Every structure is written in structure tokens, then in C-alpha cells.
């Protein structure tokens, strides 16, 4: 995940002057590094960490971090990358914590700090991307107050610190490196020239380059590239950084091969990309080779290593390319390119970027599809704010025709929410419409035959009576929920519209599907996180108070089976990793809801046996035996008995040794 990965640098001139400055400033816990685009802020910090061999947690901020739940989610991913041996994930900011975010933040950063080595550095890059009014800044302030001695925080931005953080400097907790310090000195410019230019330049020429660019690193690199192509540096002496970049963008771009130009213009639409993504978008077979060469030559292309290299263009370079792309491609071509890019972004788990892209080109149909697809997972992760922003971005006419207004909970206790407010049921007359809704969900919620519902609710009624009862009850159900379109009847089939309704069963299965994909792909951290979330979502049997209804059995058993499988799989994972306490916690959660699941007793007995807690093994065995006998009239399985006998045998051996 490039958002939490440090840039990979090659062929960089080491700025020893600033390295020594950073060494001195690290006596204070926080360092703010600010300067214009292309002034070498990110390169400075990344190369300093590389030169000093200091462990780090790298976090690339963006607008999405305005939502606290989103920030804490990605911060958890960064923590896993920084301390992979720590198996327990940092907590998600789920709804139960929303009333106490400062306290949650304190505990979170204390826990985070405990995971990091001493010394370590936390880096927040692109800080300027987060809006000034965002609660993100208060979270950072509260978090910084819990950073212990030996850990530094470096914040990288194009701007001065937001008002919230100014007090850190007043309290002598924060030092600053600004544009005056970041400007290349004459000696540093000479070092960059020696590193990047194949021809030897006179000191007077280097001095002119340094003065013309006012020590701006990106400007110097562009001028060197221009000189290589025969452009006179004197032509650029009085231009601003944006004008220089635009000038060179045109000069360098226009002199590039047409095929490569097309590659640049198309790939600029992707904020971050792998070689495979670039190749799929452009149909250019050597995409990886091009991106690798750009990064290797420090040509305004950053490279970050995750499962595979991830590339992103410098913001000024990308801005130039996007403007040129709008001038070059027709509106229809831009629309097709954007939709294709959005598909690639979604496939690479860059959902927010995909949605932003579709929003920019007003591809509302595809945007609605993505929102509906990812909404259950966003809710499960507590990320309500970006979901609300996505919905608000839709045109009014689409929102009026496709609002997402009903939430239905069926796992454990049944609950129906309309506009996030519970609908209370008191009158007996409301029970039949509710039974219709429950039966509809029990049969899958989509394309359910009318006669299937009628047979479930009116098994003794004749055809006409059942038909009239169905019509009357459907009308009453629609009136109860207040949205007729939420429950659609088409050609004798009933459907709960997933554009309007969120159902916990659907969300549960969607999260498990994501978990299954991650298990299959070997992405264990993600697999564990999604499996744990699914286990938390399972609040009890499907329609627990409707067990006498035969139509609940199939769905209930299916969901129960998935829950049991998830607990078993996660418990076994923790056992194999010898994280016994985590395995115990997992199996205990399973037994809270399914006390007849013998495999959970077996898992717990094994864990306690490894921990040497023999009395708990015996207690668990007796509990298992008692519950199975009183509920099902059966004895524990041979596997359970074998674990128990193994413990008794071990006790006897210990006794014999003691007697000897």
C-alpha cells in the first residue's frame, strides 16, 4: 500500500548540511518541514532516514484523512508495515468510540509507540492535502502528546503549520525547517550537477543555474535536462517555479516520442500505479521499463515498494500532464479512459481514488454502483464520513431516486432503522408486514418468488386468499418503511433494493468474501483484520426469535456455518503462530454465541494445555461434556476425548516423576 510506504531513492545527492540540522532538531519531538513543490522536502527526509538507518513509520496524508475513521484505518496499516511482528491490530474507530475521540487517540498513539523501536521516526508526508478545518489536526495534536522520548515525528507540508499545531512551537515541542533552509546552496547545486550531468560545467555556469532557480531543486533538475536538450538556461532566469515547470513540460514533452507522450497522458490519470496497471490502461507492453527508468533517473517519478513497485508522478508534473490530456483527448475518450482507470483503481483497492475519478467525469451510473458495492464494508469499518461525502456528491435527482435510507439488522436481535432512527413496533397488526420483510431476507432478498413468500406466511390459505393477503401485506410493509421503491415487485418476484437498503447479513457475507480473497492471496494481515470484523458483526443467530419458523432455517444454518468456519480458521491461525492468548480470545468469542461448537472447546483445550493451565483444560472438558449431554444427549467426540486423555496421561507422568 503506497500510502504507508517510504519512497525508494536512487542517485540522490546527500544533503549533509540538512542531515546535521535534522540531527540537532531531533532533540525536540516534532519537526515541521515546509517549502514549495519540488523543493526536495520528501527526498530530504527519505534520504536522511536512509543515511542514518533509522526505522520509520511513513504515512502519506491526503484529503480522505479528514475522516478520523479513515485515518485510523490507514494508520493501522502503516503500523503493521512498521512492526510486522506485532500480530494484534490497532483498533478501528468504530461507532462506540465516536463520543470520545481524544481518549481513543491517546490510547491509540500510546499503543502505536509501544510497537516502535527506539529510536524511530513517524513521518506524515503531504500534510497540506488535509483541509485546514479537518478534525485530523486535533487528532495529530492529541496523538503527539503521547509520543515518548526516543521517537520523533516529522511533518512535511507545502504550508506553515495549521493554527492548531502552532502551540507546539510555543511550547518548544516543535522545530521548523523552511524554504530558507531547503534552498540549495551553491555547493549543493554543484553536487547535484556533478551527479546528474554527463558534461562538466564551469563554476560560473553552476552559479548561474543556482541563482536562476533560487536554489529550487526541481528547477535545477529541469534546467539540467533542458541543457542536455540544447535549451539555454538564460531563457528561464526570471520565470516562477510554476512557469519554469510548465515551460520545460512543454519543451521536454513535445520533443518526446509520440507513443511515449500518449503513455504519459494516459497514465497521469492514475494517482498511483503499478507497471501492470499502466500496461492495462495504455496497452503499452513496456510500461514497467518506462516507469522504472523515470524513477531511476529521478525524473519526477517516485517509486515505493510494497508487494510490487508502485509509482506516482510529482504533483507539478502530473498537473501539467492532466492539463495537456484535457487539451489532447476528446470528451468521449476522456470518459472511456476514466472509467477504465477507475476499474483498475478499484481492483487495486484504491476505491476512494476510483470514486473521485468517476465523480470528476460525472459517470454517475458507475459511481452509484461502486458506492453500493463498498458501502457495507465502509460501515463495517466505521468509515461513515467518506460514505456520506460520496452520497452527497451525487446529483439531487439521483439522490432522490436512489437514496440509501433503510438499515435492517437480523443477526441476533431484529431491528429496522429508517433514516438511522429505529422504527418501533407495538401493534399486533404490524407483525405480518415484518414477517414478510424477514422472510424476504431469509430467502435471499433478491428475485424471491411471490408464491415462496405466500407459502411461508400463509401455508394453509387457498390461491386467491394467499394472493390477496400477499398484496395487502406488501402494501402495509411499504407504508411502514415509508419508501415504496425499497421493496420492488416485478413479474411476480420480490426484491429488496440494495440501492436503498443496507442489510447486516449482506454486509457480513461481503466482509467474509473479502477475507476469503485475502486468505487465498496470502495477505494474512488483511485476512485476519476482515475475519475479525466479520466475527464482531455476527451478533447471534439469524432472526434468533423466529426459530420456530421453518423458512429461517436455511439462512440461519448458512450464516452459522460461515461464523463457525471463520472462528475456527482464525483460531487455528493464531494457534499455528503460537499466539495462544489471541486464539483463546477468538474461541471464547465463538463459544459466547455457539456453545455447542465442540471444535471451539478443542481449540481452547489445546491453547490452555500449551500454556500449562491444566485445571482450565479439565474445566473446559467437563463443561463441554455437560452441555453436549444436556442439550443433544451425546458424548464428546473422540478428538475431544483424546485431548483430555493426553492431559491425564501427562499428569500421571508428572506424578510418577515426582514419586521417583
List the main descriptive attributes of the protein structure presented here.
Arc Repressor Mutant, subunit A, four-stranded mixed beta sheet, five-stranded parallel beta sheet, alpha/beta, 660 residues, globular, Rossmann fold
Please identify the top-level CATH class of the largest domain: Alpha Beta
How would you sum up the major sheet? 5 strands, parallel
| Total discrete domains | 4
Which blocks of ≥5 consecutive residues have pLDDT under 50?
A: 656-660
Stated plainly, the CATH topology of the largest domain is called: Rossmann fold
- State mean pLDDT (0 to 100 scale): 85
Radius of gyration: 30 Å
Global structural class = alpha/beta
Strand content: 5-15%
* Percent in helix: 55-70%
Tell me which CATH architecture of the largest domain applies here. 3-Layer(aba) Sandwich
Spatial order of strands in the largest sheet: 3-4-5-2-6
Inertia-based shape: globular
- Euclidean distance between termini CA atoms: 60 Å
Number of contiguous helices: 30
CATH superfamily of the largest domain: P-loop containing nucleotide triphosphate hydrolases
The total strand number stands at 15
Amino acid at each position: 500500500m503506497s500510502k504507508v510506504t517510504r519512497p525508494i531513492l536512487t542517485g540522490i545527492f546527500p544533503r549533509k548540511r540538512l542531515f546535521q540540522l535534522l540531527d540537532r532538531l531531533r532533540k525536540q519531538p516534532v519537526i515541521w518541514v515546509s517549502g514549495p513543490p519540488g523543493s526536495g522536502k520528501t527526498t530530504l527526509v527519505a534520504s536522511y532516514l536512509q543515511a542514518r538507518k533509522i526505522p520509520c513509520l511513513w504515512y502519506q496524508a491526503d484529503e480522505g484523512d479528514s475522516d478520523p475513521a479513515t485515518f485510523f484505518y490507514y494508520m493501522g496499516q502503516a503500523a503493521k508495515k512498521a512492526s510486522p511482528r506485532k500480530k494484534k491490530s490497532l483498533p478501528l474507530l468504530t461507532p462506540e468510540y465516536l463520543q470520545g475521540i481524544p481518549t481513543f487517540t491517546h490510547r491509540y498513539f500510546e499503543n502505536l509507540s509501544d510497537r516502535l523501536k527506539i529510536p524511530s521516526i513517524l513521518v506524515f508526508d503531504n500534510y497540506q492535502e488535509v483541509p485546514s478545518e479537518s478534525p485530523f489536526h486535533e487528532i495529530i495534536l492529541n496523538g503527539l502528546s503521547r509520543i515518548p522520548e526516543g521517537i520523533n515525528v516529522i511533518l512535511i507540508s507545502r504550508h506553515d503549520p495549521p493554527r492548531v499545531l502552532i502551540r507546539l512551537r510555543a511550547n518548544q515541542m516543535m522545530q521548523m525547517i523552511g524554504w530558507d533552509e531547503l534552498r540549495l546552496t551553491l555547493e549543493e547545486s554543484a553536487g547535484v550537477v556533478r551527479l546528474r550531468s554527463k558534461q562538466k560545467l564551469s563554476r560560473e555556469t553552476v552559479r548561474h543555474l543556482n541563482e536562476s532557480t533560487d536554489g529550487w531543486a526541481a528547477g535545477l533538475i529541469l534546467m539540467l535536462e533542458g541543457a542536455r536538450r540544447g535549451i539555454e538556461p538564460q531563457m528561464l532566469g526570471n520565470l516562477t517555479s510554476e512557469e519554469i515547470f510548465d515551460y520545460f513540460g512543454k519543451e521536454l514533452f513535445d520533443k518526446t516520442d509520440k507513443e511515449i507522450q500518449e503513455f504519459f497522458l494516459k497514465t497521469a490519470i492514475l494517482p498511483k500505479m503499478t507497471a501492470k496497471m499502466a500496461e492495462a490502461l495504455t496497452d503499452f507492453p513496456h510500461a514497467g521499463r518506462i516507469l522504472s527508468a523515470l524513477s531511476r533517473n529521478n525524473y519526477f517519478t517516485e517509486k515505493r515498494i510494497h508487494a510490487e513497485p508502485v509509482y506516482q508522478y510529482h504533483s507539478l508534473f502530473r498537473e501539467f500532464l492532466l492539463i495537456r490530456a484535457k487539451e489532447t483527448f476528446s470528451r468521449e475518450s476522456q470518459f472511456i479512459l476514466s472509467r477504465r482507470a477507475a476499474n483498475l483503481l478499484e481492483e487495486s483497492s484504491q476505491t476512494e481514488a476510483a470514486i473521485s475519478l468517476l465523480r470528476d467525469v460525472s459517470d454517475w451510473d458507475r459511481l452509484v454502483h461502486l458506492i453500493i458495492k463498498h458501502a457495507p464494508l465502509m460501515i463495517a469499518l466505521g468509515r461513515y464520513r467518506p460514505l456520506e461525502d460520496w452520497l452527497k456528491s451525487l446529483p439531487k435527482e439521483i439522490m432522490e431516486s436512489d437514496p440509501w435510507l433503510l438499515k435492517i439488522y437480523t443477526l441476533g436481535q431484529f431491528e429496522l432503522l429508517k433514516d438511522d432512527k429505529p422504527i418501533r413496533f407495538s401493534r399486533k397488526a404490524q407483525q405480518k408486514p415484518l414477517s414478510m420483510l424477514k422472510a424476504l431476507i431469509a430467502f435471499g432478498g433478491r428475485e424471491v418468488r411471490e408464491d415462496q413468500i405466500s407459502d411461508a406466511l400463509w401455508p394453509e390459505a387457498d390461491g386467491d386468499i394467499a394472493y390477496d393477503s400477499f398484496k395487502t401485506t406488501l402494501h402495509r410493509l411499504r407504508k411502514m418503511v415509508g419508501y415504496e421503491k425499497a421493496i420492488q415487485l416485478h413479474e411476480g418476484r420480490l426484491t429488496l433494493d440494495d440501492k436503498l437498503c443496507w442489510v447486516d447479513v449482506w454486509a457480513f457475507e461481503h466482509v467474509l468474501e473479502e477475507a476469503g480473497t485475502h486468505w487465498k492471496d496470502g495477505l494474512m494481515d488483511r485476512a485476519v483484520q476482515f475475519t475479525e470484523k466479520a466475527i464482531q458483526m455476527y451478533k447471534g443467530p439469524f432472526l434468533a426469535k423466529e426459530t420456530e419458523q421453518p423458512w429461517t432455517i436455511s439462512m440461519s444454518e448458512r450464516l452459522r456455518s460461515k461464523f463457525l468456519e471463520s472462528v475456527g480458521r482464525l483460531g487455528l491461525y493464531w494457534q499455528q503462530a503460537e499466539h495462544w492468548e489471541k486464539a483463546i480470545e477468538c474461541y471464547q468469542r465463538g463459544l459466547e454465541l455457539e456453545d455447542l461448537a465442540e471444535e471451539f472447546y478443542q481449540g481452547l483445550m489445546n491453547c490452555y494445555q500449551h500454556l500449562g493451565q491444566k485445571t482450565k483444560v479439565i474445566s473446559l472438558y467437563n463443561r463441554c461434556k455437560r452441555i453436549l449431554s444436556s442439550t443433544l444427549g451425546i458424548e464428546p467426540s473422540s478428538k475431544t476425548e483424546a485431548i483430555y486423555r493426553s492431559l491425564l496421561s501427562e499428569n500421571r507422568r508428572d506424578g510418577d516423576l515426582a514419586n521417583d
